[in-house]
Amino acid sequence: MKRRQLSTRKTPLLEAWRKVAGEFGGEVELDRREKPSRLYVPYHEWKIVLDVYTQSNGQYSSTYTRVRALFLRASPFSLRVTRRNPFHALGALVGYRPISIGYGQLDRTLFVRGDRADLARSMLRGTSLGQALLRDPVRLVVTRPGKRIRRLAGETVGEVQLLKGGKVREVAKLSGMIQICTQALDELERLDVATRARVEGVAI
Questions:
Q1: Could you tell me which of 181, 136, 140 has the C-alpha nearest to residue 24?
Q2: Residue 162 and residue 177 in contact, taking contact as beta carbons nearer than 8 Å
Q3: What H or E segment, with its residue span, contains residue 69?
Q4: Which of 13, 97, 102, 202 is the 20 to 30 Å CA partner of 32?
Q5: C-alpha of 170 from chain center
Q6: Which of 200, 185, 188 lies closest to 44 in space, CA to CA?
Q7: pTM value?
Q8: What values do phi and psi take at 176, rounded to 5?
Q9: Can you tell me the distance from the alpha carbon of 176 to that of 162, in angstroms, rounded to the nearest whole number?
Q10: Where are the domains of the chain?
């Protein structure tokens, strides 16, 4: 009896993005070669942007699927959440220690750094955001954006950014990244870090 071969065909990026756009009421922007460039999703007054980002240091490059949103900051706050790996244990020996969230599963799975431990705990402990990051520990960063954006939008602008390695084509994973971004924005608003005002004068 012949074994049935499983299909290894990957969903084309444009097809996946259009499905996600339909789910969230967003739109896909195409470049001059008719390839997907960005996926825009509206959420309250914010605009969430999904794209593929390549980072290079001259010797090698890494490709990521990236989700970002700008917001107006009501107060300063920076946060970085990544999945724990063996290098974090080595870093702890030289003082590179994480924030303790006070919930065992989160502390075992995630490595959390930030300038306000109280806000980091409030964002992640007992929240839908914390549970989503346990299920899918993408890299989550809350920070000030680059100089170009600050020059155009002002020094009170902040940014939420999520990164996942490679070109993600699975619709469920792309949708999950956007949902984590919306949850992060909601938590930042709840904690009086972000306002629900539109960021004018700049596009990302």
A1: 181
A2: yes
A3: strand 61-73
A4: 202
A5: 16
A6: 185
A7: 0.90
A8: -60, -40
A9: 11
A10: 13-195
* 151-177: pLDDT as tens digits: 999 999 999 999 999 999 999 999 999
Return d(Cα 163, Cα 152) in angstroms, integer.
Answer: 24
39 close to 177: Cβ distance less than 8 angstroms: no
Place of tokens 């490709």: 63
| Dihedral, 118, 120, 126, 129 alpha carbons, nearest 10 | 160
Q: Which amino acid, one-letter code, is at 151?
A: R
Give dist(CA 128, CA 137) in Å, integer. 13
- Note the pLDDT of residue 90: 62
For 134-151, write each residue's pLDDT tens digit.
Answer: 999 899 999 999 999 999
Query: What is the rounded CA–CA span in Å between residue 25 and residue 42?
Result: 7
Count the neighbouring beta carbons within 10 Å of the beta carbon of residue 67: 28
* Segment (H or E) for 171: helix 171-190
Confidence of residue 3 (pLDDT cuts 50, 70, 90): very low
**Token pair listed for 106:** 């989160």
- In this structure, the strands spanning 157-165 and 36-43 are unpaired
Q: How far apart are CA 128 and CA 179, in angstroms?
A: 10
The number of residues making up the chain comes to 204
Question: Quick check: 71 and 185 in contact, CB under 8 A?
Answer: yes
